[in-house]
User: Which sequence fits this backbone?
């Protein structure tokens, strides 16, 4: 189940849920602790603002700046439901809107890109080396194509 905490009154959260589900169904996890059940795992997407992403970035990564998306992998089984919980994704909707304007596409497309990117992180993908980045960007492009967003690219 994809839980969406819509703190910003984002218009169409079904697009974001679909982006997460297609990513989970299309991409094999790199994290060896996650098996095929990750395609049916639970996760939460928090739609918030720059202030909260700035605080999270500082608290968890030591980076004193806002960002567009952060992922917090869990990869644990919920003892009550016995379902795999992948983790949380936090997205700054104002930053997504700014990046969408810069990229010349709708904020809904940018938010879907950020959900795909964040979900890939929950599955164990990263982009800290050129090799990791090449793999992650290829998977991201494949999912975006399935979503009809092949022209959208993450801004670095």
Assistant:
């Amino acid at each position: 189940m994809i839980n969406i905490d819509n703190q910003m009154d984002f218009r169409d959260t079904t697009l974001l849920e679909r982006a997460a589900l297609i990513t989970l169904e299309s991409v094999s996890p790199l994290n060896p602790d996650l098996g095929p059940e990750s395609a049916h795992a639970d996760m939460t997407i928090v739609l918030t603002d720059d202030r909260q992403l700035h605080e999270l970035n500082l608290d968890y990564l030591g980076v004193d700046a806002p960002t567009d998306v952060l992922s917090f992998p869990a990869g644990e089984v919920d003892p009550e439901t016995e379902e795999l919980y992948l983790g949380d994704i936090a997205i700054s909707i104002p930053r997504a809107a700014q990046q969408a304007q810069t990229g010349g596409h709708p904020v809904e497309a940018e938010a879907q890109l950020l959900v795909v990117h964040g979900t890939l992180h929950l599955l164990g993908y990263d982009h800290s080396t050129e090799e990791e980045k090449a793999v992650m960007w290829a998977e991201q492009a494949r999912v975006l194509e399935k979503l009809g967003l092949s022209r959208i690219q993450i801004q670095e």
